[in-house]
Amino acid sequence: MTRVLWGRSPILSICTGLALGLAGCGGSSTPPQISSSLGSAVDGVVNAALQQQSIPGIAVALAKNGTILYAQAYGFSNLATHQPAQTNTIFEIGSITKQFTAALIMKLQEQGKLHVDDSINLYLPEYGFPPSITLRMLLTHTSGLWNYTSLPQYQSWAVNGVSEATVLTAVSQAPLEFKPGTSYSYSNSNFFALGAIIEKVTGKSYEANLQQYIFQPLGLVNTDYSLPPATQSAVGYINSGVPAIVVDRSAPFAAGALSSNVSDLVAWDYALINGKVVSADSFKAMTTSNGFTIPGGGSYGFGLGLDTFNNRNIIVHGGAINGFTADNVVFLDNGFIVVVLTNDDYGNPGALVNNILNAVCNSTQLSGNC
Which of 147, 324, 335, 367 is 20 to 30 A away from residue 255, measured at CA? Predict the structure, then answer.
């Protein structure tokens, strides 16, 4: 049976980790100490995780103001060939995809092609969704739509592929979890529907929109909707080291189909928070709370988890899909970034990010990096 993990509430793993008593980065204005000490601190944390969690391979990057402070890869991208993981190795990133989908929606709003307070039925009338569901509710997981990855037929969809109409019909016919707008519940159905709306509005595929508005303008040559060449990417594994079944891209779609590497995700993070992807007003909307506290703390904006670290605002998101887990954290005050990618779907990158922040940000010697 296919284990599909990217649909679990990925934001919870990192928000919970950040709530575990971290004493803070301090926000020092001291110039970053790019030294062997930083590398040693990160290496010690990651190597411990490799042993304790039996993860085949991990890639990590720390950056600030768009400059990578330290990037390193550990373990293997392919156990069968003993190919070492490298910093340019491409991993699947699961639900981190949702950030990209939300940004596309904001780009289309800036162009006057849609509005986040429009009803879903303005764009997908054929499915008979409750008209009270808005695009804003989809973006913030407050629509009440049932999570399609928990439907019994999803296992077949993940292996054999599925049409958008099939998924949207199944979601529209499933009972709502709650009255739209009255609660929060993480559901991949929200972002699957947003992907379909992007296609309906533009007349182009979701993938083509990503290329036009994000990948090409930002030079993200290692980020893609299609699966990357095997020679450039990691093999995903389950806990015992068995290769995971590759999920057909049509199943995760706009909720979790992207692949990337650590340098591209650093470039994406920097561009997003510095007005190079969406306008300042759009980014403000993306980082505005939906009004609900999610389990483990924090809240949710548009495709972004919102939390604080030592009273500093951060955006966070995790991802998990067969054979891969990932976490991405960005400090909004100074652009300090931590990206962790693994090729094991039982990995806990949220805990690893937690430990990296402790090792770097709570160190007298290294806290200037934060």
Answer: 335
Hunting for tokens 């990578």 — which residue is that? 68
Which of 251, 260, 163, 250 has the alpha carbon at shortest distance from 221? 260
Q: Are 185 and 144 in contact (CB under 8 A)?
A: yes
Question: 238-286, pLDDT tens digit by residue?
Answer: 977 999 999 999 999 999 999 999 999 999 999 999 999 999 999 999 9
Nearest Cα neighbor of 207 from 279, 263, 259 is: 259
N- to C-terminal Cα separation, the chain: 42
Sign of the Cα torsion 87, 83, 207, 134 reads: negative
Identify which of 263, 322, 310 has the alpha carbon closest to the alpha carbon of residue 95: 322
- For tokens 């004493």, the residue is 23
CB-count burial class (<10 Å; 0-12, 13-18, 19+) for 284: exposed
Half-sphere exposure of 330 (CA within 13 A, CB side): 22
Q: Are strands 259-260 and 91-92 parallel, antiparallel or unpaired?
A: antiparallel
At position 57, the amino acid (one-letter code) is: G
Alpha carbon distance 107, 356 (integer Å): 34
Q: Where are the alpha helices (DSSP H) in the chain?
A: 10-18, 36-53, 97-110, 135-139, 154-160, 164-173, 188-202, 206-210, 216-218, 253-256, 262-273, 280-286, 349-361
- Using only C-alpha atoms, what is the Rg of the chain? 19
Written as one letter, the residue type at 175 is P
Q: List phi, psi (to 5°) of 206.
A: -55, -45
Q: What are phi and psi of 330, to 5 degrees?
A: -135, 125
26 SS3 class: coil
Q: Alpha carbon 35 to chain centroid distance?
A: 29
CA distance 62 to 250: 32
CB atoms within 10 A of CB 178: 13
- For 62-111, write each residue's pLDDT tens digit: 999 989 999 999 999 999 999 999 999 999 999 999 999 999 999 999 99
Cut 0.85: pTM above it? yes
Q: Which SS3 state, helix, strand or coil, does residue 171 take? A: helix
